[in-house]
Design a protein that fits this description.
The complex is a heterodimer. Chain A is globular, with a radius of gyration of 23 Å. In chain A, α2 links the parallel β1 and β2. By secondary structure, chain A is α/β, with parallel strands linked by helices. Chain A has a six-stranded mixed beta sheet with strand order 2-1-3-10-4-11. In chain A, strands 7-6-8-5-9 form a five-stranded mixed beta sheet, sandwiched between helices. Chain A contains eleven helices and eleven strands. Chain B has a two-stranded antiparallel sheet. The C terminus of chain B is likely disordered. The chains are: A alpha/beta, B mainly alpha.
Chain lengths: 330, 520
């Protein structure tokens, strides 16, 4: 090795060292793929695209990011893809709690343990909705009416969050409900507006437009305390005016759906740490606050042991409901 | 005339230099993604979506919807020239568009398609303008039972329709239903028919099936039968573009009937795909030259194209007023609405008048811009037919492979696409009809969901399909269409000895046409 090349090597090493960030040891070297486990336009897709937009706008990552939709099989397509990409840190999977709930109730070829959990970034609330001109004003009235005739409850997908909540209502309120699954919450909202259903348990953003338009109204929210007031939705009421279900005698304290972020399995701790850090940075931006507010979600950030505990608790609970209903697959 | 006043206000918003520029850009980009392999409208719109976040909502929706119009027109180009439909709704256009183009008349086929599509879109927009509030109400009346009835009607208009033997149609339908059932079932949540292939949980994508069945299948047939000898003889004539458009008014009955079917299926949430198939099916039965359908008939192009665009346009209304997206592209645009801070729903028409009427006005202007641009490009596209088959054939294979892969970046899709190619070839060789197969793949799954949701609601009683006037009418019309060929055949058999059969059938047909119109 000649003197010049030694000098050059040294110079190159210095330059490279300068570009190395101090905190995280791993940096992406090629484009990153965001996999939304839902079709274009759904809540999960919106999250993936909002995160992509924030990262690009604030230049949080040097590499370009593309969003792909793998929403087939109620999201199973995206998770199976994540499982098949084990060890690849350039695939980030965006989903919901169905990452651990779906394998319980249907024979899909993945489990959440095949993936590396990064974070739960936002929580969607659930409310009990009825048609605008329905006679009942409170959840108590609703349960009383439901006791004498079997009500039709709509929801998105089968044996998923909406149906689990429906079965919980049956149990807590001592009523029997006919659950009718549709493809999405938006579709369910329209069916309620048309009077084909008696109620549903949509997230706020899924029925916001319908509430404002006076086709349906929320009776109560499945949350330990009332939602933040925010702007008025209708002329007289906002989210903060909706009573909690416990207040109205329907004893279900809390039911939420987290929006979750995953990496494929078998990635290094450095790689996982990079994305945890990245999502934290995303959450600190004003655009994130704006996204949370516009979609009426609750801002949370669970990662590491906390996230793990959340999953375990939720699994325990869903297992119990699914077991009672005979949904569990071997 | 409140609406007219609002519309004028909308035109003030839509006809400004920046908005017109956006429309031209959007339409051109749309034609590009419509024609290019594997992009398609939903992908194109979602690629463009992040660019619109900084815009005014009206400007953003004008850009995206113009791109949508462009892509719809662009999609017809590949259907007609290469027999590769880009969107489910342009499948029916291939039935007569492709044979006509292959016969050396690509210019006529393209110009006819674009002209009738523009007519359909125009009728759709006019409907939205005047009946906005009423239309939103009609869509609300549709529960699962009514949905099923609409799909049933679409299927019924296909069974026993001319050409193939009814039993072959039923077989094709059944295979299509089986393919549609692959993946997760909405109603029970369980995994069906994946045959041990984990990835099949996502189901079979329509684009994958159609690219193979039509693109590759046709290619195999062409290789065998040496169609390609004729392909080079196509003439390029600018005047033919205007002549073809000028001839459209002669087919005014077909145009009006198809527009009516399109609008009806757009408002009732049947959607553009069901509309174009139904319109083609009904045209084939009631057109004077119906028996020539499939060989390059003008009305065989007019009927699906007009209905497709009439439905596509009027379907935008349920999306805005109710928040149900009528198509994949509409779903992406709805996601956009939320990000721009607007909530699709009944209040949009009250709160966001500028947005809604700006959009409606832009639909008039955008479609005019789109049809003008697209007619100008007809000779260019038609020139593609002059390229020798030895170059075109590998290009078609590339389009199909890239297109299938890009649906969800999966090799399995490419393999399935090639498999469908062989199925398509076999269907052609054995004289099985492809249309019912595709129809079942596209809406079989929805029809099944609707049927089972209805059964859940009624606790298993079929009475739910006769529970109110709307659903009863739809079901009875469906059954009538289903039995019609059988009745006609019986009548023919019974009257065989009498020589005046033709006259009576003609009378009968006229009566049925009249009845059909009442139903539609």
């Amino acid at each position: 090795m000649g003197r010049t090349s030694k000098l050059l090597l040294f110079a190159a090493a210095t330059v490279l060292a300068g570009t190395m960030p101090a905190l995280s040891a791993w940096q992406p070297q090629k484009p990153i793929e965001f996999v939304a486990t839902a079709g274009p336009g759904g809540g999960t897709d919106n999250l993936a695209r909002a995160v992509q937009n924030i990262i690009t706008k604030h230049k949080l990552v040097e590499q370009p990011i593309v969003v792909v939709n793998k929403g087939g099989g109620s999201g199973a397509e995206g998770y199976v893809y994540g499982k098949a990409s084990a060890g690849d840190p350039y695939k980030v999977i965006f989903g919901t709690s169905n990452a651990w709930q779906q394998p319980l109730v249907s024979k899909v070829a993945f489990n959440y343990t095949d993936l590396t959990a990064i974070a739960a970034m936002a929580q969607d609330e659930f409310l009990l909705w009825v048609k605008q001109d329905a006679p009942y004003k409170t959840a108590g009235d609703y349960l009383k009416a439901a006791a004498s005739s079997e009500f039709k409850m709509g929801g998105a997908q089968s044996k998923d969050t909406d149906e689990v909540l429906t079965r919980m209502i049956e149990k807590a309120g001592h009523v029997k409900l006919t659950y009718i699954p549709f493809k999405s919450g938006a579709e369910t909202a329209v069916q309620l507006a048309g009077g084909h259903l008696d109620s549903h348990v949509n997230n706020p953003s899924e029925s916001l437009g319908q509430w404002r338009g006076g086709t349906q109204r929320p009776l109560c929210v499945f949350s330990p305390k009332r939602l933040p007031q925010g702007a008025k939705v209708t002329a007289t009421e906002g989210w903060g005016d909706v009573p909690t279900c416990v207040e109205q005698g329907l004893d279900i304290k809390q039911y939420e759906q987290p929006r979750t972020v995953w990496l494929p399995g078998k990635v290094t701790p450095d790689q996982a740490a990079f994305y945890v850090d990245l999502m934290k940075k995303v959450q600190a931006t004003p655009e994130w606050k704006d996204y949370i507010e516009k979609t009426s979600q609750v801002d949370t950030f669970l990662t590491g042991a906390e996230f793990d505990k959340f999953i375990k608790d939720d699994l325990e609970h869903v297992k119990q409901v699914a077991g009672e209903q005979g949904w569990l697959v071997k | 005339m409140d609406n007219l006043h609002e519309l004028m206000h909308g035109f003030n918003i839509a006809i400004t230099v920046p908005h017109l520029a956006l429309m031209v850009i959007g339409v051109l980009l749309g034609i590009l993604v419509g024609v290019l392999p594997g992009l398609g409208a939903p992908n194109g719109v979602s690629l463009l979506l992040p660019l619109t976040f900084g815009m005014q909502p009206v400007s953003a929706i004008i850009l995206l919807s113009s791109m949508y119009w462009g892509a719809l027109f662009g999609g017809s180009v590949t259907s007609i020239l290469f027999n590769i439909p880009g969107e489910p709704s342009s499948v029916a256009t291939t039935f007569d568009g492709y044979p006509m183009a292959r016969d050396g008349r690509p210019t006529t086929a393209l110009a006819t398609a674009f002209g009738s599509a523009a007519f359909g879109a125009l009728i759709g927009v006019i409907l939205i303008t005047f009946l906005a509030s009423w239309v939103a109400q009609v869509a609300l009346a549709f529960g699962p039972a009514e949905y099923f009835a609409v799909y049933f009607l679409a299927f019924a208009s296909f069974v026993g329709m001319g050409g193939a033997a009814p039993i072959k149609t039923v077989v094709a339908l059944a295979i299509g239903f089986a393919i549609a059932a692959i993946g997760i079932d909405t109603v029970s949540g369980s995994v069906r028919l994946t045959m041990g292939v984990d990835e099949l949980v996502k189901g079979v994508n329509f684009v994958v099936a159609v690219m193979g069945l039509f693109g590759i299948g046709e290619l195999l047939v062409a290789v065998e039968e040496e169609f390609h000898a004729r392909a080079a003889s196509s003439k390029i004539d600018w005047r033919e573009v205007f002549r073809a458009v000028g001839r459209l008014p002669r087919h005014s009955v077909a145009l009006l009937r198809s527009a009516a079917i399109g609008c009806w299926m757009g408002i009732t949430p049947g959607g553009p795909t069901a509309a174009s198939f139904m319109s083609y099916g009904i045209a084939r039965r009631f057109s004077r030259r119906g028996r020539y359908f499939g060989t390059g008939e003008v009305e065989g192009i007019i009927s699906p194209e007009t209905a497709d665009h009439a439905a596509g346009t009027s379907a935008l209304l349920p999306m805005l007023a109710l928040g149900i997206p009528g198509s994949a592209t509409a779903a992406v645009m709805m996601g956009g609405l939320m990000i721009w801070g607007l909530n699709p729903g009944p209040m949009l028409f009250v709160d966001q008048k500028d947005f809604v009427w700006g959009l409606i006005a832009s639909m008039y202007v955008g479609n005019i811009v789109a049809v003008a641009l697209v007619l100008l490009t007809v000779p260019v596209f038609a020139a593609l037919m002059r390229i020798p088959f030895v170059i075109i054939a590998p290009l078609i294979v590339i389009i199909c492979v890239v297109g299938a892969y890009s649906v969800s970046n999966s090799y399995l899709d490419v393999v399935m696409m090639l498999g469908f190619g062989i199925v398509g070839y076999l269907f052609k060789k054995l004289f099985y009809p492809l249309a019912p197969l595709v129809l079942a793949i596209v809406i079989g799954d929805k029809a099944e969901d609707a049927f089972r949701q209805s059964m859940l609601m009624s606790k298993g009683s079929l009475g739910i399909f006769f529970a109110n006037k709307l659903v009863t009418c739809l079901i009875v019309a469906g059954i009538a269409l289903l039995l019609l060929p059988l009745v006609l055949q019986l009548a023919r058999l019974l009257r065989k000895p009498a020589p005046s059969t033709d006259e009576t059938t003609a009378q009968k047909r006229a009566q049925e046409t009249a009845r059909e119109k009442v139903i539609i």
